[in-house]
Recover the amino acids of this structure.
DNA sequence: GCCTGTGAAGCTATTCACAGCT
DNA sequence: AGCTGTGAATAGCTTCACAGGC
């Protein structure tokens, strides 16, 4: 129904709206939100059409209402568990950042091969041996996985996540994952990002930056 | 001249080509590379037009030649230094991953506020107090920065990087950065990615996954 | 026959521009 | 006057489809 780009920006708008809420702002115009998000005002309005909450001319959008509206679209109706595979530096960074930050979404299980890392809690998330992956993912009805393992392991871990019922994967490994079309993958490719940035840092391109 | 998407994919193709090279493959067809990269063959051919190396029908592209061609386009003519700001879990993950991986690009300086982390080397990269950021970035003519600090610090760090002459930034903080148009920013937004994936994991969308 | 390179078509996403409202 | 919501225009990107070559 909605495009990944729109969904992504809505996620961003919501975070910015929380910031406004904290600073006591009750209403916001598309222009203000646009400048915070570094997009055009028309883009914001277009994206917000997906939310279905109307803004009023003169005062703009009610911040609280918009947050709720975006939540209604983005958040799972009930608690949605996420599995993290790979508890290296990257995995730990993710575990440290997320707890309590998203409504109805939580990293409920982490997996690693290293026996020294399992059977304890890291940032209040239980860690298991990777051998138990299928069993626990199935038991907990987990639908979302985060792959934070080395390139050499990534495809095999993805296969196992998919077999266990996962329908979406955030992939931090520097290789593309091959999955059935029902599974949605977002590849967070740090190498690609860095090479891209290095390339455009060399040209004096007056691009609007930011774009894909 | 070339679009960020094309440049990003070329970076990916090159990594895949290195893999082929190691496994002794000398020539590759656009279809093979496409399936490895999870894109269409026509996309690969279109992207490779930017490289200017011709493939031959029958045998396809010479792997070695293609790698060189992509390098010619992507790599800096001479050593290009990168500055990393923030030596938390994420910063360390990046420092652990990159050394020696990209031709003519190296993380040459890392910065942190924590006095316990500075004046030593992490993965053979010198760590400095963040107060020295401008001085060292200028001295080393660094043009690319990686922001791996908390949201609250990110904009201020970006400002300082830009003031010191940086022309491209990879931003891992969960907030958009406001920079002059000459500076290229790529926002690696983990929160956005996770919310997007969670959203599409819930729908049975038969999207081709992968897209933005 | 089956490949590459590429004009042209088709799509998707963004931006313009303005009617309608307050 | 200045905002939102949105059809219409534009820009950007991907895919088709085929000429040309081995």
């Amino acid at each position: 129904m909605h495009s990944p780009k729109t969904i992504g920006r809505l996620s961003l708008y919501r975070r910015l709206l929380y910031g406004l809420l904290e600073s006591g702002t009750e209403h916001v115009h598309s222009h203000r939100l646009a400048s915070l998000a570094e997009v055009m005002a028309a883009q914001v309005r277009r994206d917000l059409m997906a939310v279905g909450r109307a803004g009023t001319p003169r005062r703009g959008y009610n911040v609280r209402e918009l947050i709720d509206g975006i939540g209604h679209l983005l958040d799972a109706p009930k608690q949605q568990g996420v599995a993290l595979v790979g508890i290296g530096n990257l995995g730990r960074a993710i575990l440290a950042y997320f707890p309590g930050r998203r409504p109805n979404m939580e990293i409920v299980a982490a997996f690693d091969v290293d026996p020294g890392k399992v059977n304890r809690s890291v940032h209040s998330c239980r860690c298991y041996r990777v051998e138990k992956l299928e069993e626990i993912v199935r038991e907990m009805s987990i639908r979302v996985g985060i792959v934070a393992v080395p390139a050499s392991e990534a495809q095999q871990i993805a296969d196992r996540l998919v077999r266990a019922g996962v329908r979406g994967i955030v992939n931090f490994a520097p290789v593309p994952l091959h999955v059935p079309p029902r599974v949605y993958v977002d590849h967070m490719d740090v190498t690609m990002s860095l090479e891209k940035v290095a390339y455009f840092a060399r040209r004096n391109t007056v691009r609007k930056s930011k774009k894909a």
Q: What stands out?
A: Residues 81 and 108 of chain B are 6 Å apart (CA to CA). DSSP finds eight helices and nine strands in chain B. Residues 3, 5-6, 39-40, 42-43, 46, 56-59 of chain B lie near DNA strand D (CB under 10 Å from a C1'). The longest helix of chain B spans residues 4-22.
